[in-house]
Amino acid sequence: MFEKYEYDDSVSYFSISPKMFQMLAKLSIETNDPEADKFIKLVEEIESFKVITTESKGIAEDIQTWVDQHIKTQSLEELMRVRDKGAHVNFYVKSTKNDDRVKKLLMFVTDINEGQIDLGDRKPETVLLYLSGDIDLTQISKLVNEMNLPGGQQLGKLNEK
Amino acid sequence: MKSKMKKLLIFAVTLTFLGCSKTQSIQEYYVAKSEDPNFLVIDIPTSFLGINNKVLSQEEQAALDSFQKLNVLMFRKTAANATQFPEELEAVRQIINGEQFDPLVVVSDRQFSGKLLLEGSVERPDEIVFFGSATDDGFLLARLIGNKMQVEKAVVLAKALEREGALDNAVEAIGQML
User: Which of B 35-64 lie inside 8 A of A, CB atoms?
Assistant: First the structure.
């Protein structure tokens, strides 16, 4: 699904493979910054990371179809649903026994208004973020915030409760 | 009977050749394009860094030895070769999408796309390839070739290189080459 649109002009695509994460984990990077160390720890727990954004209506629909199917076949649960300035943000997870940790996180953003996400001259309509691994939700909200995507703040609040 | 055998043999040989030539290897592509004036080829052996072996610790030396050279192939897009560009782009994509390469990072946007790949195991890769292309400017294919490269030592090595001012040496050497 992600690879399909790799060379498509109306799509931005970014992916880090499990092998890259294995390699990063081996690099044993040391910093003296506790925030950065937390971030590295977070990275080491991720197995796969993919983001696809598109401004094409057709591809957006195709992504929607894929998400719907993926939720069914992988039996993902809806974590939450957010409306942020008109944009719909849905989070789906494959949960574990531990409330704070998930095996899979899907963030699906649709109906994004112009100017809501700053990506230069691009006007993305749909964003799909896919993460798998042993993921700490409390840390992920920070990542989403860093990336300037809508929904990050809400995801952070969810864990403060 | 003999001629039948001969025919069969020829058939078998042809088949083998066809099997081999179906996918061009990245090395073959490099060699083929090094004669093409539209391409720029740069070969940088790690010895180019001009590091005095005596100043490196054993660990650093072993890490350095596992990296052999950096190989860069560039295609600069001009008005004259604009028609060749899509062909070459497709050829490289075919090669790097081959089974021997595992993608590490993939970035793709309207103007730019980049891919980092690895050949061999994650612990000890034999080759790390970067392929970047820009619609308006051309593309760049860089290969870091080694022998069971000690990836985890890359950080150690980078520190040693910095300490010895190796990068300055390399830049100077490349400058002289051009």
Answer: none
